[in-house]
Specification:
By secondary structure, the chain is mainly α. The protein has helices at about 5-40, 60-80.
């Protein structure tokens, strides 16, 4: 019998890859259909809107400094830097 050529090996590899990918697509679609049927058919209950938060009282100076320090530490931690590199110019309530 003759030798297996490079083209045959490449062709068999490509066929194998695409057959497996098609099988995965079919399996995922079947699982999606099964899961959608298993999910509850009733829509979620409407959640009533939360009451607006009462207006905040002005923050005392000592508490404001603690708040700024806590915000600076959180920002420095998120950025991965030292707190001394963080300079907060203003804080606005959103």
């Amino acid at each position: 019998m003759g030798e297996i050529g490079i083209a045959q090996v490449v062709l068999m590899g490509l066929i194998t890859v695409f057959v497996v990918l098609i099988c995965l697509i079919i399996i995922i679609k079947l699982m999606g259909a099964i899961m959608s049927k298993a999910a509850p058919a009733t829509p979620a209950e409407a959640v009533p809107a939360a009451a607006p938060a009462p207006a905040a009282a002005p923050v005392a100076t000592g508490n404001k400094q603690q708040m700024v320090a806590a915000i600076a530490v959180a920002i420095a931690e998120e950025m991965g830097t030292d707190v001394s590199h963080i300079r907060i110019h203003s804080i606005k309530r959103v």
